[in-house]
Amino acid sequence: MIEIILLLGSDDYAIEHWEDAPDLVDYKGRPFSRRAGPRVPVSSDRGIEPVAVYAPDELTEEEFQDLFYALQPKVPELALKYS
After folding, report:
1. For a surface tag, which of 2, 63, 70, 75 has the fewest beta carbons within 10 Å of its beta carbon?
2. DSSP secondary structure string for all residues of the chain
3. pTM of the complete model
4. How many CB atoms lie within 10 A of CB 32?
């Protein structure tokens, strides 16, 4: 399984567990593109699954980065180091 983190807005996200991580998905009627992963954390004692991050497809890379950093304090997986 892959832990999927969907960045929905500056204060909103969803976490799902999927068998694969396609490049583009429809989530609740909205297109999302995979922006990172799936990757496994470098050092983890919790046995975390690979993680993939998705954001609305219409966002530019800069807008995605802003959203990613806005949600980082709320989503611990966004702050982990990955190989």
Report:
1. 63
2. -EEEEEEEETTEEEEEEES---SEEEETTEEEEEEEEEE-BSS-SS-PPPEEEEEETT--HHHHHHHHHHHTTT-GGGGS-B-
3. 0.88
4. 24
